[in-house]
TrEMBL record, chain A:
<dbReference type="GO" id="GO:0004366">
    <property type="term" value="F:glycerol-3-phosphate O-acyltransferase activity"/>
</dbReference>
<dbReference type="InterPro" id="IPR022284">
    <property type="entry name" value="GPAT/DHAPAT"/>
</dbReference>
<comment type="pathway">
    <text>Phospholipid metabolism.</text>
</comment>
<dbReference type="Pfam" id="PF01553">
    <property type="entry name" value="Acyltransferase"/>
</dbReference>
<dbReference type="GO" id="GO:0008611">
    <property type="term" value="P:ether lipid biosynthetic process"/>
</dbReference>
<dbReference type="GO" id="GO:0016287">
    <property type="term" value="F:glycerone-phosphate O-acyltransferase activity"/>
</dbReference>
<dbReference type="GO" id="GO:0019432">
    <property type="term" value="P:triglyceride biosynthetic process"/>
</dbReference>
<dbReference type="GO" id="GO:0031966">
    <property type="term" value="C:mitochondrial membrane"/>
</dbReference>
<dbReference type="GO" id="GO:0006631">
    <property type="term" value="P:fatty acid metabolic process"/>
</dbReference>
From TrEMBL, chain B:
<feature type="active site" description="Proton donor/acceptor">
    <location>
        <position position="551"/>
    </location>
</feature>
<dbReference type="InterPro" id="IPR016169">
    <property type="entry name" value="FAD-bd_PCMH_sub2"/>
</dbReference>
<dbReference type="InterPro" id="IPR016166">
    <property type="entry name" value="FAD-bd_PCMH"/>
</dbReference>
<keyword id="KW-0808">Transferase</keyword>
<dbReference type="GO" id="GO:0008611">
    <property type="term" value="P:ether lipid biosynthetic process"/>
</dbReference>
<comment type="pathway">
    <text>Lipid metabolism.</text>
</comment>
<comment type="subunit">
    <text>Homodimer.</text>
</comment>
<dbReference type="GO" id="GO:0005778">
    <property type="term" value="C:peroxisomal membrane"/>
</dbReference>
<comment type="similarity">
    <text>Belongs to the FAD-binding oxidoreductase/transferase type 4 family.</text>
</comment>
Length: 676, 631
């Protein structure tokens, strides 16, 4: 029902309303102490944290695994059981209404200070309320900021819906107090590297499955696994996905409802931190002190936040014909069972589907569009003269308005008010980002981070990093808009690179791009031809291409659109090529990820300084890691299992073939990847 | 008390039957069909008993041609709007059921004002003319085996009791294909002759026993171009001998359940095989579909009861050479015949186990606060292997359904006692009337042991929160299964279609399967435009060591639907898919027929289907037994 035209179910009449407005008018205390009587799935009775833990510990499944682990390790069953109990204590949430109230009160204060508006679509909440009655619900927000964590609980509390149980990373737990606060607000904690710890997996999956089965609270988790530092969607992690879906596959619940949720920020709290991390300044450990120090962030203006509750997706309907639930018939249901290949593919497809919906219903700020243009201009300017010149405000305005039209025709959802005049909308949107960009004397320029006070002159390499930091911060906002343009951009690039008008050639290069970049952009497996057709039709709509049965051509008058789109992809292509050329160097044979990242970074810095490279994305460690994953997936790099760190071996001929194909020097090899 | 009731019932029924049989004999003497009934050669054992079965050749003389059971027994709403059950055959016969109308109207959103009456008589113009194979007919005449090609006889054997079949009869729809003639063999040798002639003249044979199939097994394949002959076994209904040393009886396979029990009872024995359809279904039919009786916990299912089977196939007669209670002689050839659904041949004679009639019988019931508790109790009973002859768990909907069938209470005292019971269970014990379920029990054996057994079961039930709820509730539960098919006819008079289906499933999936299948039905109905909430109800009817048999009722008010049968079939199809996805079997005892053929490959694997096919190819290469069931 929801897979085809507009999976987000977005309708024009979907209206956002600001939940802070009410908070600014009435007492926060009254809000925190309001009567709270949500109606859960099938009127499931509330389950205390202790009772839940007991159910998990006494489950057949856990007993079975406990016995198995005891046999393997030679420990006594009791000892293993105790261990399991310990894991559960570390993991389990302890949702308490009192805490939710306290939190509600605090968050009201904090949110009002940080954000001018928190806009939510009330229609989506109504749908959610309906869904919660009918089947266990999984809330699946995207993850862009730590603020994501409690905002949903806050909204659900406000609207009298059951407070979700939230999957969180262990590092959060280690923060003093914060861990406990989160735990009492319904968070449960998952270790980062579980690896092959069988007992841990068993406890975790039984815990999650028990919550889903009983349905007393929605489960909330981030399908991307981590907070995205690039503000782009991340490749979905499937472990949790499998756990929440299994009760449906095994027939323990009639259906499960996935609710994709898009959280969009005008400005992300952690923006400068993110850029630092991408450039190799290690991520500060998440400590309470760190958070308190971050109090200065409270003094800044972060504009609006949008939370869009998507159309509930019925797992039963979506998996119809894709999963044969009979595969679970021949093993006792309490025993662990590895899902079949079809089921695994289906789960992965579902996750991609959810991410697509999240992207489609995310809200773009005017600044996201401006960021695309500012960066393109920045790329095209020689670094030497750029400081003086910058982009003129007029030109930026004119281009942004053009881009706004394009984005809307591509189906983007913009937060662009009708009043005040467009110029002012842009100015105020940009003003939120005054730490990286400024309009001075009619020229828009990026700001570099100032060095520590009293520090001497810095090296040219340091200069590159400082510039890069600003660029990457802006790039993050560009990234928020990429999902709108990515498929048409790939078609535009395919037409340009193949220099062919044959639909067949263009499509095969398009597929090559989808495949190569599928770690950086999330595509739905098995949908490449639809993606291609849809992209062509969008481009045709705005006059950028003409299509016939056999041909796809780009007319002269569409150049503005196509060159903009190609330029949007250029930084990624450059970054991939930099990594490719690094890996093809003679002295690179067997390497670890830890060795690769700084080496690529220094190569990129060198190229930036020499002017051979104009975009800073190659410096981003996330992009570099994505290239590595792509190469692994494509078989151009192989993993050697040694010791604790994975080592990799580069297959140089394969990599240079990829590089040549990407650059259009080689035709796409027609050994189609069966995945696409 | 229960046993007294029973024996007086039994006497009454026996008397009725005698008088009816006398009537049949008269009819035969009239000889209006002009067919000479020739007795078979006397068997070795010397049984020369006259045919005195319940079922006459002209079934339509005592049974409905377009509904369930006897013509004289039916439910109707009388002028006062009260439900009545007509006739004299059953415990409910002649009684008014004051609460049925309310239940009916509230459950289905139906109204006694909205009638959907059936076509009263068969219109001969909707029946295609017979395509006779003249040579076959000539040869058959020479044998003296009675046959007919009258429309009524042929139509009666063109269907079983699937909803779509009965619905079509009621609507007076045109038939695509019906048997071209009906033959009534009197004994095994007659069958041998018929099968030989059928092979010689390439005629399609469809065995017909009691006609109670609910799997479209009796439907004639529309693509069949040969002459189709319905082989009605009803006249092969004698007990040929009874062996009190080994406790076995040798019986002709056309005998129907009630006759078999009655005849054995006369000698102080029973088979204990009591499928819900036993009033009409036949021994041969049980063998051909792998039937299950409600008292299988004591007596076993049909495959446990059968000692020897004789069947006629196009290749010849298949049977074993001895009656050893168990043999190790390769795969058991009985299992090719058990469940063959008339695709390989005709079962003509069966030797089956008999038991002395139990000294004492007692019904019982237990009320549980919730279905989950009831299932847990049944599971425990199965684990301890102390199941009574029958133990069934009815869900809440069925409990209320059963209550709607309570006859008018005559004495104020009974009324008062009923009220007290209800008060005790719902108020003092806090059972929610919309949640509570009831398990019905039937104990058999010698008195002392029954009482002991009863205590054991009630003790287990108590640990799951169950409260003993009396014999009456128990008995009414079993009553429901015998009159349910009559009730379907009543529903169809008022725009309600209904059907039942079954499965078997491991214990750990029972609850989820029940819940998911009900939910699926409700949602599918909604999606397909059914305007009223459907009734979905289930019961656990059999317990096994490792699982249970689940029986579903499904009914809805079809007002506002263009093609209710089609809608119904889609929903049933979805329900079956849901059963399979939840680890349930394709069928526990109804069989596959043509209704569920599409799932056979997934159910028994390609190799399994291949094995069955190769047996069919060897035994019946010309597809003489061409009902196209199973494969």
């Amino acid at each position: 029902m929801t897979t085809c035209e507009d999976p987000s179910g977005y309708k024009q009449e979907d209206e956002f309303m600001d939940i802070l407005e009410e908070r600014r008018r009435s007492s926060d205390l009254g809000h925190a102490l309001r009567t709270f009587t949500p109606s859960p799935y099938r009127g499931a009775p509330p389950l205390s944290a202790g009772a839940l833990n007991r159910m998990v510990l006494e489950s057949q499944y856990l007993r079975y695994v406990t016995k198995e682990v005891a046999m393997e390790t030679g420990e006594s069953v009791d000892l293993v059981r105790e261990e399991a109990s310990g894991i559960l204590d570390e993991m389990s949430q302890n949702l308490q209404l009192g805490f939710i109230r306290l939190l509600g009160f605090t968050l009201s204060k904090v949110f009002k200070r940080l954000f001018s508006h928190i806009n939510i679509n009330q229609e989506g909440l109504n749908r959610l309320q309906q869904a919660i009655q009918e089947s266990p619900v999984i809330l699946m927000p995207n993850h862009r900021s730590y603020v994501d964590f409690l905002v949903l609980s806050y909204i659900l509390f406000t609207y009298d819906l059951p407070i979700p149980v939230i999957a969180a990373g262990i590092p959060l737990m280690d923060m003093k107090m914060v861990g406990e606060i989160l735990r009492r607000s319904g968070a449960f904690f998952i270790r980062r590297a579980i690896g092959s710890d069988k007992l841990y997996w068993a406890v975790l999956s039984e815990y999650v499955k028990t919550i889903v089965r009983t349905g007393y609270a929605p489960v909330e988790f981030y399908v991307e696994g981590l907070r995205s530092r690039t503000l782009k969607s991340l490749t979905p992690k499937l472990g949790m996905m499998h756990m929440v879906l299994e009760p449906f596959f095994k027939g323990e619940v009639y259906d499960i409802t996935l609710v994709p949720i898009s959280i969009s920020y005008d400005r992300v709290l952690e923006e400068s931190l993110l850029a630092h991390e991408l450039l190799g300044v290690p991520k500060p450990r998440e400590t309470t002190m760190g958070l308190l120090k971050a109090r200065r962030v409270l003094e800044d203006d972060y504009g609006s936040m949008h939370v869009y509750f998507g159309m509930p997706l019925s797992v039963r309907q979506l998996t119809k014909g894709r999963v044969d639930r009979c595969e679970y018939n021949l093993l006792p249901r309490d025993l662990p069972q590895r899902p079949s290949v079809e089921t695994q593919e289906c789960v992965s497809w579902l996750a991609q589907q959810v991410i697509r919906v999240q992207e489609q219903s995310s809200i773009l700020s005017p600044w996201s569009l401006m960021a695309c243009l500012v960066l393109q201009d920045h790329q095209n300017t020689d670094p030497g003269e750029e400081q003086e010149k910058g982009l003129s405000w007029e030109l930026l305005t004119q281009r942004t308005l053009w881009l706004k039209g394009l984005a809307i025709s591509f189906g983007a959802r913009l937060d662009w008010p009708e009043q005040p005049p467009e110029n002012q909308v842009m100015a105020s949107s940009m003003a939120l980002h005054s730490s990286v960009i400024r309009c001075h004397q009619g020229r828009v320029t990026l700001l570099e981070e100032e060095g520590p006070v009293g520090a001497g002159p810095f090296t040219t390499e340091e200069g590159v990093v400082r510039r890069a930091r600003a660029v990457l911060m802006v790039a993050a906002y560009r990234n928020q808009a990429l999902h709108v343009f990515i498929r048409p951009a790939m078609v535009a690039l395919a037409i340009h690179t193949t220099r062919s008008s044959q639909r067949e050639d263009i499509y095969s290069y398009f597929r090559f791009l989808l495949d190569l970049f599928s770690n950086d952009f999330i595509f739905i497996t098995g949908r490449s031809s639809q993606d291609f057709e849809e992209a062509c039709s969008l481009l045709r709509k705005c006059g950028a291409v003409q299509t016939s049965q056999q041909e796809v051509t780009s007319p002269e008058e569409g150049q503005r659109t196509t060159s903009f789109l190609r330029a949007l992809l250029q930084p990624f292509i450059d970054a991939y090529q930099v990594v490719f050329s690094h890996l093809c160097l003679e002295d690179v044979e067997v390497f670890t990820e830890r060795q690769m990242v700084p080496a690529v970074r220094s190569l990129a810095t060198k190229l930036l300084l020499s002017g051979e490279l104009t975009s800073c994305d190659a410096l981003s460690s996330d992009t570099q890691k994505n290239v590595l994953s792509a190469l692994l997936r494509l078989g151009a790099v192989t993993r050697l299992r040694t010791a604790e760190h994975s080592e990799f071996r580069a297959n140089k001929p394969a990599i240079s073939r990829l590089a040549d194909t990407l650059a259009g020097r080689l035709p796409v090899q027609t050994a189609p990847n069966p995945r696409l | 008390m229960a046993s007294n009731n029973n024996s007086s019932d039994r006497q009454r029924i026996a008397q009725q039957r005698l008088s009816r049989i006398a009537a049949h004999l008269h009819k035969h003497e009239d000889g209006n069909s002009g067919i000479i009934a020739k007795e078979c050669k006397i068997d070795a054992t010397g049984s020369t008993e006259e045919n005195k079965g319940t079922v006459p050749r002209k079934r339509q003389e005592i049974m409905k041609w377009n509904g369930w059971g006897y013509s004289d027994s039916k439910f109707l709403f009388n002028k006062k709007g009260q439900a009545e059950f007509t006739g004299k055959r059953y415990r409910l016969s002649g009684m008014t059921l004051p609460s049925l109308q309310d239940w009916f109207e509230n459950t289905f959103g139906a109204s006694v004002k909205h009638k959907s009456p059936a076509t009263p008589v068969l219109n001969a113009s909707v029946v295609p003319p017979p395509r006779l194979n003249e040579a076959f007919v000539e040869n058959l005449k020479a044998t003296g085996i009675p046959f007919s090609n009258e429309a009524e006889d042929r139509v009666f054997r063109a269907h079983g009791h699937c909803l779509h079949e009965i619905f079509a009869l009621r609507e007076g729809k045109k038939f695509e294909r019906v048997p071209d003639m009906v033959v009534w063999p009197n004994c095994h040798n007659d069958v041998v002759k018929i099968v030989e002639l059928a092979c010689k003249h390439n005629v399609c044979l469809i065995p017909y026993g009691g006609g109670t199939s609910v799997t479209s097994a009796l439907e004639c394949p529309p693509e069949e171009t040969r002459c189709i002959v319905s082989l009605d076994t009803s006249q092969m209904n004698r007990i040929l001998w009874l062996d009190e040393n080994n406790l076995v009886a040798h019986v002709e396979a056309g005998i129907i359940g009630q006759d078999l029990e009655r005849l054995l009872n006369e000698s102080g024995y029973c088979t204990g095989h009591e499928p819900d359809s036993m009033e009409f279904s036949s021994l041969g039919g049980w063998v051909a579909t792998r039937a299950s009786g409600m008292k299988k916990n004591v007596y076993g299912n049909i495959e446990d009861l059968v000692i020897h089977i004789k069947a006629v196939t196009p290749r010849g007669v298949i049977e074993k050479s001895c009656q050893g209670p168990r043999t190790s002689t390769g795969p058991d050839i009985h299992h090719f015949i058990l469940g063959s659904e008339g695709t390989l041949g005709v079962v003509t004679e069966v030797t089956m186990k008999i038991r002395p009639i139990p000294e004492y019988q007692k019904y019982g019931s237990v009320v549980f606060p919730k279905f989950e508790a009831g299932v847990a109790c049944l599971r425990e009973v199965a684990k301890q292997r102390c199941a009574p002859a029958s133990i069934r768990l009815m869900d809440n909907k069925q409990f209320h359904f059963g209550h709607a069938l309570k006859p008018q209470v005559s004495s104020i005292f009974t009324h008062f006692v009923e009220g007290l019971k209800k008060f005790y269970i719902t108020k003092l014990k806090g059972f929610d009337p919309h949640q509570l379920v009831v398990a019905t029990l039937l104990f058999e054996g010698d008195r002392e042991r029954v009482l002991q057994h009863e205590k054991q079961v009630y003790d287990i039930a108590a640990t799951f929160g169950g409260l003993a709820a009396g014999e009456d509730n128990g008995q009414r539960g079993y009553l429901l299964t015998f009159v349910i098919a009559y009730l379907r006819d009543l529903g169809m008079d008022y725009c309600v279609v209904a059907e039942s289906f079954e499965t078997s499933v491991p214990w750990d999936r029972v609850l989820d399967l029940c819940q998911n299948v009900k939910e699926r039905i409700i949602r599918e109905c909604k999606e397909r435009g059914v305007q009223f909430q459907p009734l979905t109800s289930c019961r656990v009817t059999q317990t096994y060591d490792s699982g249970a048999c689940i029986y579903f009722y499904f009914a809805f008010n079809y007002r506002g639907l263009a093609d209710p049968v089609h809608t119904y079939e889609q929903v049933e199809h979805a329900a079956r898919e849901e059963i399979l996805a939840n680890g349930g079997s394709l069928s526990h005892h109804h069989g596959v027929g043509k209704l569920r053929k599409e799932w056979m490959k997934d159910s028994i694997s390609n190799v399994g289907v291949g094995m069955l096919k190769s047996v069919k190819e060897y035994v019946d290469p010309e597809n003489i037994f061409g009902n196209r069931n199973l494969l």
